[in-house]
Every structure is written in C-alpha cells, then in structure tokens.
Design a protein that fits this description.
There is one protein chain. The chain contains seven helices and 13 strands. It has a five-stranded mixed β-barrel with strand order 7-12-10-8-13, surrounded by four helices. Strands 5-6 form a two-stranded antiparallel sheet.
C-alpha cells in the first residue's frame, strides 16, 4: 500500500512533517509530555543524549537511560495535537518514508504519557499520581476513525445514561491502557477512568466569565460508576493516545500527577519536584 504524498507530508529532508523525525531517530520506548519544557527535565536524567530536535512545540530528545533507549517527546495540549503526534509516530515506525509504502513488519511502540491533571473524587489528594486504566474521550477526535473492537461500548452507554449526556455534545468513546504497561509502570498507583476534554475551562466544567451550558455535568461525572470503575480525573490528551494507540497496534499508558482536586477546590501551587520524580519512576519502569 502506497500512501499519496498529500496524505503523509514530509520535510524536504524526508523526515515526517510535524515531528521532523526519521525512523532511526525514534526509540521504541517513548515518554510523551505536553509541556515542551518537560522534555529537557526528563532527558537530563539520561546517561547520554544522541538526538535533540524541535519543530514548533514538538520537541524530541532520544538517548540512553540505564541501558534503555528512550525518546521523550512533547505533544503540546489537546487531543487534536495527539492526532498529529500519534499518527506521525506510527508513520515513522511503520511506513518507509522514502517510498510511502507500509513496512511489511509491524514495529510496536511503548508510549507513556506523563502529565498533570485534576481529580474528580474527593479522596484523591493533590500530589498523588493517578494511572489511567481507561481513557474516556468527550472530544470527538476518535469518532473520525473506524472504532473496531478496541472500544468499550458498554462503558460508554453506561456513561451516557448515568450522566444524562446531551446529544448536542460529541459522543464519548472509551479505550483501555495496555495491561502490560499498566502493571509494569503503575502497579502501585491509584487507577481509574480518565476523561479527556476538548478544552480546559468550559469543557472541564470551569466557569470563569462565560456561562456554562451544562453546569451540573461534573457532578454527574463524579457519581458515575460502572462495575466499580469511577472517573478519577480529567485532562486533555489520554483518550486520543489510547484510541489511536490501540487502533495502530501500540502499547499505551497515561500517568498524571494530580495538581488540583475539582471537588475539594485544592490546588498544588508548586509541583515541579513531584512531576520530575514521577518522570524518573516512569523511566525506571518503562
């Protein structure tokens, strides 16, 4: 299968367009961060760095950490950015960029997002790491893809019913983390369902000056329970990582440091040491 040039744009040097990477520059183990500044925060722990590359807000450092080759890549904020990053990472790994032909052998990537998030349960203290056993998207990005059998439609139907989800909003979708990564990286962390929203303020139930159309939605989400699964936290990237990662045959996981509790109103003003420590934990375990 040859992909038209218009569908898979590249840099003049043949690298994939947005990430500006070639296949040999990407490790099989990848840490994804939203903030470009966190790339250097984590790569400074490497024993050696072989590549430093930046294009727009997308920064990549590839190097060696305790004998493991790892790439740390910034995605920016939002599932729309994840749509670009995940598709391009898969293209770098599984498409010959010189010919635009899909490679005959599949290269599986292990990707762990390390980020920050707001808790939706009152018993989750700020400063706590939370792992996403499931990513539940209310952003709509994955509705443009053929869902296949990796979507948890039963959980989605329960979520729609219990929250009184409006038909005017994008239909939710839900996909799981890689069991292998969940066990290896997050075996001692709080786990739950993570919601990915298409924005930080209104879509996450924050009202500043603009009036909310669904002001009670967060309360309904907090009360959601399906077979013991509750929504632990809300952020802006996990669901698309899980949806596209599963669709493309990669192993994916999200772990977030809770810096705000939306129920109690608490916010962690200073958390850089804690996010650095969480990054080191992931580097050790991936």
């Amino acid at each position: 299968m040859k992909i038209p040039a218009s569908e898979l744009p590249k840099q003049p040097n043949g690298a994939i367009y947005h990430l500006n990477l070639h296949a040999e520059e990407l490790a099989d183990k990848i840490i994804l961060v939203g903030d470009p500044g966190r790339v250097a925060m984590f790569s400074k722990m490497f024993d050696s760095i072989e590549l430093q590359r930046q294009n727009r807000e997308l920064v990549t450092h590839t190097g060696i950490y305790k004998g493991k080759r790892i790439s740390v890549i910034s995605t920016g904020m939002g599932t729309d950015n994840i749509d670009i990053v995940l598709n391009e990472l898969d293209a770098v790994a599984n498409i010959d960029l010189a010919t635009n032909e899909v490679r005959p052998e599949h290269r599986t990537l292990q990707m762990v997002r390390v980020g920050t998030s707001g808790a939706l349960q009152d018993d989750i203290e700020v400063g706590t790491p939370v792992a996403s056993a499931y990513g539940l998207g209310i952003d709509g990005v994955l509705q443009f893809y053929d869902a296949g059998d990796w979507m948890d439609e039963e959980l989605v139907e329960a979520f729609i019913e219990q929250t009184g989800w409006s038909s005017r909003l994008p239909r939710p979708y839900c996909t799981p983390a890689s069991p292998e990564l969940l066990n290896a990286v997050a075996h001692d962390m709080r786990q739950g369902v993570t919601i990915s929203a298409p924005g930080f303020f209104g879509p996450q139930g924050r009202q500043v000056r603009a009036k909310l159309k669904y002001p009670e939605l967060n309360h309904a989400i907090e009360a959601f329970n399906y077979k013991g699964r509750t929504v632990t936290n809300m952020e802006m990237e996990c669901s698309a990582i899980y949806g596209l990662g599963n669709a493309l045959g990669h192993k994916v996981l999200t772990v977030c440091l809770i810096i705000a509790n939306r129920v109690t109103g608490r916010f962690l003003d200073s958390y850089h040491d804690k996010i650095e420590a969480l990054g080191r934990t992931v580097l050790d375990r991936i």
